[in-house]
Amino acid sequence: MNKSESIAKLSAALVKCQSLIGDAKKNAQNPHLKNKYANLGSVWDAISPALETTKLAVVQMPCPSDDGKLHMETTLVHESGEFIGSTIVMPLPKQDPQGYGSALTYARRYALCSLLGVVQDDDDGQAATANVSHSVALIEACQSMEELQAVFVEEYKKFGRGSPELRVLTDAKDGRKVSLSQPFNPAQLAPAAKPAVESQPAAVAAQPIENF
Description:
With about 210 residues, the protein is an alpha+beta fold. The chain is built from 8 helices and 8 strands.
């Protein structure tokens, strides 16, 4: 395994990233064995929201070789510059461009799953198409518990249960709840008659809604 001198920040980001990654949907079928599997696109759908949230990126590049096999390096990079990576070696089904391309796609899929702990889901439902980045932006823009509750309930409906997008959305909601619960800045203290109004978000937060 290749890695930077320190991977402390990357490790913390990876721990959070894996907690947000959902299962990859089995959306393709092997024409020979007739079994269903998650293709490369499905794996990326499962990991992309979590990677974006935790400031991680994946780089996959084939390496020169003279043994007639595919050598491909997969590197996980953190915004701090820290990285870890490893190389997979895979036989080629045919010594031609089509055989190389097939092996490359196969290697990329398995390397991603191995690196980030992605598993295939038996649920054949279609992945959510809503833009989780937009939903997270709406969550982070909320200025009160009432607004946060209303926005979260609406955005929650856009994503399937257990989806990676919903995990990212819930994580953003929990983070915003913490921010809104922080004490006010003493430099912005309101008149003495207003503390009761400022304490209202706590009461609103106790109102039961699903997963709030």
